[in-house]
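S1.2 Input.
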Amino acid sequence: MDLEITSTPRATHVWTPSDQQSDELRRELTEYSFLVRDADPWELDEAGFIPEGQQHEFDPTRIFEVAIGADANATLQALVDSGHRLVWHRWQTRLSRKIWGVSVAIPPMTDRLVPAIDRAEHFGLKVRGSRELGLRMTREAYARINKRSSLAPWFREDDPELWDALDERYEDAQHRFYTDEWCAALQAEALEDFDLNRAHFALLDRDEFEQALRLAVKSQRGMVEVTDLAQWDGVRGLFVMVLDEYRQAYVGATDHPGGIMTRIKQHWARTKSLDRLVWGDAETSIISIDSFRALDTTRIFAAKSAR
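S1.3 Output.
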């Protein structure tokens, strides 16, 4: 049996042809103590792998997760030893001959998605967009429809009154997928919020913004302008991402082992789900730093710090 594979740095998914085959493989693997988890599309969605309008293809009843590293190697190798063939799923665009040390077949070019993807060198790093998102924030790509809820799973017994009050928003009994009507309402509110934010940005004075930015940077000892982010790989501390076109700046602090470089790359790569674009209402919600794209960051300042 051919089993399709999708992979991100934190999850490896195995796609089976049917629910029944998925159940059989899960039981078999679990019986022999291999790691098998329930599938969740969050990682694929965050990485921009799921094409527009195809969220329903991720069916957790026929997909399971096998983690990463040694756990994934053991489980995938067990599947191969049982006579199954691993093939990259068509959503996976960066293909290699192996995943976690186990061979994966590359499907014919005609079966794969080969989108035109923006690429650039930015602050010394090579950056790339996803299929739907380029390297700059645009209104057209800002509030893409995604019917799957990004909220943590919960159940009616947790709060029956709230569950019933929200029931009309969902098209399934488990409250995992929104109705088309609710998605349209979320999209309209998100785009209204986008337009209000852009109008506000346009009113801000560039000279006043520059003065405020310089005062903030000078107030932090050791803060310097960054030209090559690779020099901040593994360096923990403070950083400022400047979005000059919008007269905005994002201030962050990180003690992540990957340092300031990794944290900024995470902001560039992430995006917000449709149901998380507006916090409160369109009149007061601000655009998240994760909604801006890599080339929207025009300057970076950083300071090494253990505090």
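S1.4 Remarks. The mean pLDDT is 90.
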